[in-house]
Every structure is written in C-alpha cells, then in structure tokens.
Amino acid sequence: MNSSVGSEIVTGFIEEVEGYLPDMSRCLQTLQQDRAHRPSLAELHRITHTIKGAAAMVGLDDLSGIGEVLEKVMENILGASLALDDETITLLGNATQRIDSYCMMQRAGKPDEGQLFQQTIAEIEEKLCKSTVESCDIEGSSENCNPETILFEEREESIEEEPSITEASPDALDNDLGLAEGFSEEDTDDFFSDAGSLFDETSSPVSPVSPVEEAIDDDLLFQDVAEEEDDLFGSAVMEPSEISEEVPGFGGIEQTGQTDQDNTGAEDIDPELLECFREETEEHLENIDSCLNSFGIDITDSVELTPSTKETLHSLRRSVHTLKGAAAVIGIEQVAAWGHDFEDFLDWLHDEARRLDPPTVAALRDGADLLASLAEEPTSPTEQRKQRIIAQFEGITELFPQTLRERAVRMR
C-alpha cells in the first residue's frame, strides 16, 4: 500500500469513529435515566469492540487500546461484575470525550503518543480494582487480579494475532483493499463502519455462548437499515452492469454478456488475505446455517415477525453483511455482488415484511447456499441460479424492484 492510500484509509476510519461518538453520547444519556436499558449497553459494547478491532487493523494502536479497555468495562457491566453507577457513567463519558480529542489530534497531525491510552488505563484500573477486590482476596494473588496486567497481556496477544494493514505487503494491498474495479476507496473505508473488521464476532442462536455474549446478542435487535444505509458495507456499491435504466428485476442485473469467469478469482488474491477471508467465511456460514435451521424448526406456517425472530434475522443479516464487505475489500467481486443482493432481500424483510413463512425461509436457504458456493469458488458459473433465486425474491415481494430503482437513481 502506498502512503497516500494508507493516509486516506486512516482518515476515513477517523471519520467513522467520529460518527460513533454521538451514538455513544446518546447511549450514555439513556443510561443516565435508565440504568437497566440493556440495548444501550449492548450498543456501547458493539461500538467499543469495533473501535478496538478496526483501529488495530489500520495501525492506530493507542485508539485500539482505548477501545479494548472500554470494551472490558462494558463486558464487566453486562456480566454484572461491575455496577453501572454514576462514577462508571462519568468514566465512560470522559473516555468518549478523550476519543473525540484523539480524533482531532489525528486530523491535526499531532498523534496522542500514548498519553490518552495511559490515562484511560489508570482510571479503568482503579474502577475495576474496586469491583474485583473480593475476588482478588479469594485468589490470594494481587498480580493475577491486576486489571492493568490482564489488559496489557490481552492487548499484546491481540496485536500479535492481528497484523496492521499498514504493515502488510504494498503490492498485495494496493490490489486487494477495496481498490479492485467496481469498489472505491470510500467503500474500503465503509468496511470499518459496521462489523469493524474482517474479524467480526458472530453468535449462533442455537449454540452455547457465554453469559456476556448471550446478553449482548439478546439486545442486538435488527437495526433500522434506512437510518444506517450510508454506513453499510455495500450500500453504495453496485457495478454499472448491475444497474440498468429499466431495473428489470430484483437484483437490478442486466444481461450484458459478461460471464462469471470474467470476475476476480481466488488465485488473484493475496494468499494471506484470502486465508483470513476463508477462515471468517467458515464461521459466518456456520452462523447463517444455524439461523436458517432455527427458522426451519420454528417457522412451520405464516407467522408474525416477533422480537425473537428479528434477533435471528439480525444475526443472519450481520453475517451476510460482513461476508459481503470482506469480499469487497479484498476484491472477490462475485461474493460481494451476490451478498449485496441477498442483503437487500434481508433489508426488505426488516423494512416491509410483517410475517415470515416457509417459502420465505426456503428462499433464504437458497440465497445462503449460493453465497456459500461463491465463497468456495468465486468463478463458478452461477448466473442461472442467481436469476432463479432473484425470481423467488420477486415472488415474495413485488415492491422491491422499485426500491432498487430508487437506490440506483441516488447513485447517479
């Protein structure tokens, strides 16, 4: 990656972080009034987790460290080992202001050089020590219970496991980080907005999870796509060949004679990035399969969408969304394009649908199977399957082509 591209990616990420700050402040204001408002707690956990992972990937270790210690606070609150008292809310509010200051310093070309991270660590160490003094006495080892020691050990492990984007191969990343034909540098920046990184965590609705993860996932309802559309991986990513003037079908795909074999194949991708993508693909496809299995058991007739159903939809859509964005970033266009169409249908289920029935579940299963096939072999011929599944989507809703038409007009 050349220096100009690296600078643009970091600048774009800083802009994304600044976009999180109003949401963090809003959540804290809500929690000031209602300490039991778990959706706000879950949202704060999601944001801090995103900042931690994505900042590490772009080489902003100080900001990643801030995200990590704040994530630790949120995990302790959600796990009921740390009280959400006035002192904790003040600590979180001050940390939010420091992140804002950090972003302004980055924009001004005056990096923090670690002071902000150290100050946040000191405050969190004091707070966590107060909440863990009893367990420390039981263990009999103050060193093992020292939050600073634990946090630094975890942070060192995460830094070793997640190499910085700015340290990767220049030639490989120039080709792979969202700069392939059809994906702009803006789209690369969007990669960090929702899932935060290629290493987004997934949770299965039917698999055993820790109490903290379960509490988080129970509160992460399907978010309003209309409000978030500008921040989605591929909300503004469509190939010119995918949008015709007439927008003839669900996917907005016009037959242009281009074959699947014309698209980027696995052999064209940097091996290390491809290996990361395949590892994450396996996890997300397993989560998608678990969600669909849950629907298969529960949806035996037409039923109204319930909060529980929307939670499963959210988990399903989150995995599709992450796979789409990861594929776009490293240049696997076939996966990104189908992930875009598949996610559009999931968006419609949230925005317009009121009920869920077995035919819709079957269409979701077909869409997921195609996504899995493309992830395994991006250049496999799938055009007929795409059109058949798109026809299924159109059969479920006749209004969706208009939605795509409006999206296409906005892009011009």
Short descriptors:
disordered N terminus; mainly alpha; 412 residues; HPT_dom_sf; 2 strands; 66% helix; Four Helix Bundle (Hemerythrin (Met), subunit A); single chain
Helical content, roughly? 55-70%
The portion of residues forming beta strands comes to: under 5%
As residue ranges, the low-confidence spans are 1-5, 141-264, 404-412
The CATH topology annotation of the largest domain reads as Four Helix Bundle (Hemerythrin (Met), subunit A)
Radius of gyration: 22 Å
Extended strand count: 2
How are the strands ordered across the major sheet? 1-2
Class of secondary structure makeup: mainly alpha
One letter per element, helices H and strands E, the order comes to HHHHHHHHHHHEHHEHHH
Termini separation: 29 Å
Molecular shape: globular
What is the level 1 CATH name of the largest domain?
Mainly Alpha
- Looking at the overall shape, the CATH architecture of the largest domain is Up-down Bundle
The CATH homologous superfamily name of the largest domain equals HPT domain
Seen as an oligomer or otherwise, the chain set is single chain
Query: How many distinct folded domains?
Result: 2
Total of DSSP H or I helical runs spanning 4+ residues: 16
Biggest beta-sheet profile: 2 strands, antiparallel
Q: Would you tell me the overall average pLDDT?
A: 69
